[in-house]
Write a sequence for this structure.
């Protein structure tokens, strides 16, 4: 099945691209969610007319993503966590915790874009990759420290 993407999908392509996908994926996921349309002659003609608008929109979104990447690259997130004997953490640090701390620094990132293969379960400094979008990635420095005793 040949489709025209109406938005950027990391695994397929960018907005305005014509892609071939399996029939079920297109029919049951992409088209009902309005992420793509069939690549009919009429839709291809509309795409040709909108191509310049799509390119300018992608360029501005890429610039915004690069600006966010610069902010993230310079940011250090300090997370206080309760510890037990031997400085072992009670619980773990997840993408949601990191996203919350980034929001406190004025950087709004969806927690799903923070790439943690597994939660952070130890004190110390960890570099965590963040997929911002439009092939723009950054790393945020996460420092886990013990909570100050009361």
């Amino acid at each position: 099945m040949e489709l025209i993407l109406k938005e950027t999908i990391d695994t397929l392509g960018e907005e305005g691209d014509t892609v071939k996908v399996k029939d079920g994926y297109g029919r049951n996921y992409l088209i009902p969610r309005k992420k793509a349309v069939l690549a009919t002659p009429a839709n291809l003609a509309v795409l040709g007319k909108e191509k310049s608008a799509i390119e300018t929109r992608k360029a501005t979104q890429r610039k915004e993503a690069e600006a966010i990447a610069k902010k993230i690259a310079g940011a250090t997130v300090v997370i206080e966590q309760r510890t037990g004997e031997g400085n072992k953490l009670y619980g773990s640090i997840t993408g949601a915790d990191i996203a919350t701390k980034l929001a406190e620094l004025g950087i709004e990132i969806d927690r799903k874009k923070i790439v943690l293969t597994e939660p952070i379960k130890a004190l110390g400094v960890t570099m965590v990759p963040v997929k911002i979008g439009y092939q723009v990635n950054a790393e945020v420095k996460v420092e886990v420290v013990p909570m100050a005793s009361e």
About this structure: The helical segments are 23-30, 41-73, 95-104. The beta strands are 2-5, 18-20, 36-38, 76-81, 124-133, 136-146.
